[in-house]
Design a protein that fits this description.
mainly beta; outer membrane lipoprotein receptor (LolB), chain A; twelve-stranded mixed beta sheet; 3 helices; disordered N terminus
Length: 227
Amino acid sequence: MRIATTSALILLVFSFSTRAQTTEDELVPQDPKAQEILDALSNKAKEYKSFSANFSYTLVNKSEGMNESQSGSVMMKGRKKYKLNIPGQQIMSDGETVWTFISGPKELQISDVPEEDDEEGNLMNPANAFHMYKKGFKYQYAGQATVDGRSAEVIKLFPMNPAKKPYHTIIVNVDYAKLELISMVVLNKDGNQFTYKLKNFKADIPVTDADFIFNEDDADDVIDYRE
């Protein structure tokens, strides 16, 4: 069995028990104000030839007394090439192949890039953070707030098919003046709250295609899942 990777959590953790706090019947159609902000953020992201950023990831569950944090970094070229570093793992893709390297046992898992309709597999692609709202979500504008000292436009996303999702709400905080994603908060039905914050975001950095190809000689054990 393939080892479950924290990457899917960090890249929008749709490995996202209490009942959902919002039902589908209570949701409004796509909110024009929210869509205006999300579309602007998405369109700006499409202009990036490349980018890099650091991020932090925090899991909180008050009833369980849980408060855990991790940090990592991400680098991308275009929409398909990426390199993700988190504690104990490195995930890379050149747009055709995905390499997942687990540093402890030096195990390398190799797979094809997921098909377009493979929701779970495509969570590993950081570019999807800017565009995921376009499919399978309703959304509402929730006003303005100060988030980490920055003025943020707050948008709530709700899955259109909540019964099949372990989460009920995703809160997106956007710096609308700069069209930058500040953070995302994923609220699970089991009480877990995942918070993702971007830091040191840099657009159009110099990268080459070779930066997104893993050196398989660095692994002691290679597991190839490609067909």
